[in-house]
Automatic annotation (TrEMBL):
GO molecular function: acetylcholine receptor binding; protein-membrane adaptor activity; zinc ion binding
PANTHER family: 43 KDA RECEPTOR-ASSOCIATED PROTEIN OF THE SYNAPSE
GO annotations of cellular component type: cytoplasm; neuromuscular junction; plasma membrane
Annotated keywords: Metal-binding, Repeat, TPR repeat, Zinc, Zinc-finger
InterPro entries: Postsynaptic, RAPsyn, Rapsyn_myristoylation/link_N, TPR-like_helical_dom_sf, TPR_rpt, Znf_RING, Znf_RING/FYVE/PHD
GO BP field: positive regulation of neuromuscular synaptic transmission; synaptic transmission, cholinergic
Protein name (database record): RING-type domain-containing protein
Annotated Pfam families: Rapsyn_N, TPR_12, zf-RING_2
Domain RING-type stretches: 369-415
SMART domains per the UniProt record, alphabetical: RING (SM00184), TPR (SM00028)
The family this protein is said to belong to: Belongs to the RAPsyn family.
Protein's organism: Rotaria sordida
Parts forming coiled coils: none
Length: 430
């Protein structure tokens, strides 16, 4: 009798969750869990708790639930459950910016998954996001290419939206803003059309993707000078996130609002937005986004040239977080900001050294265009990614390819043909 009751509690939790009564749902599941004797029911309830924690930004809880799922999967010696649990474990580690662990666990998820389930595609997405964290862009593209193929084969639009989002993130990191915007627009359009066709049952999840993709439009719009468009996107995403208590999106909206205010020289307002965002993101243990917010705050503090001391202190924290994550691109950006501080303080020799460290980091992550020998992603520029996943300045590679014969069009780095190889990513935008 007790087991029937716990099963009912789990279902009641699901109903509460669908009614957007999240905390009550989490409470139901948490109370029911210790009374459960059936391991499979425990596993699925932990899965509900894992998704709920993830949606609320409770990333450490997410990790704990995933670890408990792994134990059950091993106890039952069930590979289907193992694949699901490893996928959760990899995503939790990615969100906590433990990228090496995230990559290993997504490998395990793929290893235990069946060829027909969508877990492979989602595990590849986690891997791609983790490789962005580690600034290994060719690996990001390799994973996204496979994931996009799976999303097309299985007609999984939510997977496709995430591939496009991550692709936008790649171009944003490389400072090719028009391409970043093009990918985020595609993702948003797909999220909108998906929401139209999604049934009542999936209304929550499709609304979440509409909100998320709208937010992701804001940064490339702002960087291309459309502050009004960027503000509109953030405000709409913020409204939707606030009404549902979607804390991860709320925090990221605050960072974007800080960026927009900074672009308009409203430095005091910008600082307040960044500070609120950093607080929330640190609560969620989101080291990646909190470092981005810290860099925004440093730029704001440097604008009037009066708060250099405070800017230096925050920059030191940002640099140590970027280093602990293994993110060399963010480290390079910290050193470039430090160069600015040192130059304004007339410490020219130290400034030159900071610039050299930044350049060395760009070389280490292979972000030097082998054609012109200049770094990519340091200044806004158009970037072209070849089907072999090698990256160049667009003008450099186009110049080179135009000079060659049709047959000889191959990548200057790996010699693979540009024309005859297949890449879903390379073809997805144009
Ligand atoms: Zn170049
Ligand atoms: Zn190549």
């Amino acid at each position: 009798m007790g087991q029937r009751m716990t099963r009912r509690q789990v279902d009641e939790g699901l109903e509460l969750y669908a009614q957007k009564n999240y905390d009550a749902a989490i409470k139901k599941w948490t109370t029911a869990l210790p009374k459960m004797k059936d391991n499979r029911l425990r596993f699925s309830t932990l899965g509900h708790l894992a998704s709920a924690s993830r949606d609320r930004g409770r990333n450490k809880d997410y990790l704990v639930h995933a670890v408990q799922q792994i134990d059950i999967a091993h106890e039952l010696d069930d590979n289907v459950l193992r694949a699901q649990a490893y996928l959760n474990l990899s995503r939790a580690n990615e969100m906590l910016a433990d990228y090496f662990k995230a990559v290993s666990y997504s490998r395990l998820a793929i290893q235990y998954s069946q060829t027909t389930d969508s877990i492979q595609g989602y595990a590849l997405l986690v891997m791609a996001d983790s490789y962005i964290g580690l600034c290994n862009f060719p690996k990001v593209l390799e994973c996204l290419d496979k994931s996009l193929y799976i999303s097309h084969e299985s007609e999984d639009h939510l997977m496709e939206i995430q591939v496009l989002n991550t692709m936008g993130k790649v171009f944003l990191a490389l400072k090719d803003f028009p391409k970043a915007l093009a990918f985020q627009r595609r993702a948003h359009e797909l999220a909108l059309s998906n929401a139209v066709y999604a049934g009542e049952q999936n209304a929550n999840i499709s609304a979440k993707f509409v909100r998320l993709t709208k937010l992701k439009l804001a940064t490339p719009l702002r960087l291309m000078g459309d502050l009004q468009g960027a503000t509109k996107c953030v405000e709409e995403a913020m409204r939707s996130a606030s009404s549902l208590g979607d804390r991860p999106v709320q925090a990221k909206c605050l960072v974007c609002l800080g960026d927009i205010q900074r672009s308009q020289n409203n430095n005091e307002v910008a600082c307040k937005k960044y500070e609120a965002a950093i607080q929330m993101l640190q609560d969620m243990n989101d080291r990646y986004s909190s470092t981005l917010a810290m860099l925004g705050l440093v730029k704001t503090l440097l604008a009037p040239d009066t708060h250099t001391q405070m800017a230096s202190e925050i920059l030191a924290t940002a640099l140590s977080t970027a280093t602990s994550m293994g993110n060399k691109l963010m480290q390079a950006r910290c050193h470039l900001l430090n160069e600015r501080i040192l130059t304004s303080d007339n410490q020219l020799e130290d400034a030159r050294q900071a610039f050299e460290i930044a350049q060395r980091l760009y070389r280490e992550i292979d972000l030097i265009c082998t054609i012109c020998k200049e770094p990519m992603g340091m200044y806004p520029d158009q970037i072209q990614i070849l089907t072999c996943t090698h990256i160049f300045h667009e003008r450099c590679i186009l110049n080179l390819l135009q000079r060659w014969t049709y047959e000889a069009q191959s990548c200057p780095k790996c010699n693979k043909s540009v024309l005859h190889s297949r890449s879903y990513i390379a073809l997805s935008l144009f």
